[in-house]
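=== RUN LOG ===
request id: a7f3
mode: sequence -> structure
chains: 1
length: 210
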Amino acid sequence: MSTQALPPIVDAAEWQRDRDALLLEEKAATRLLDALAAKRRRLPMVEFRNDYVFDTATGPRTLLDLFDGRNQLAVYQFMDRGPEHFCPGCTWFTKNLPDKTPEMLAESEVTWMTISDMPLSQIEAYKAEQGWTIPFVSSHGTTFSQDCGTGGLFQFNAFLRSDDRVFRTYSTTGRGVDRVMFATNVVDLMPYGRQEEWEDSPPGWPKLQT
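=== RESULT ===
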């Protein structure tokens, strides 16, 4: 007999009642996220330096250049763990980005860019190994990550340009990047969740081996 932990088995009517009750909470959470997004759109902004020279596969580029002529820039900062070492969390995040991400964001006047303090040669080799096509540039030798306050960790930043001036409008790290990770969000809808130790799951629920 299977010893696998399972949710309780109920009839369709009871399942629907419980599902409907949870839906009310989900809708409340959606409205809260909408309200937070509205506050995010009303955040003030701070002018950001634009004299960094990023190393890219097509030559040196400034922060303004990375906008590719659009007015908004989304940046994920991929951690630099040293030669031949790569952050598993940043790797998981980048694997979550579909190849069409830049194309789809461009329709909303947003350019996507992944930036790392890793040297470009290390980035390009890892991109080839992973089969990634996401735009990826190196901030190696600049103070860009330091000026963003990453503390050597990963971070998401939003920038806005006005003519030749660049402004930082938003940043987040840690669990703040969860909502843009497709696979993670799908797993959150599944019965066993992420199977991580910190999750509040019923007794006996499986946990990933780390």
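=== NOTES ===
Helices lie at 12-41, 88-95, 101-106, 120-130, 144-148, 182-188.
The radius of gyration is 21 Å.
=== END ===
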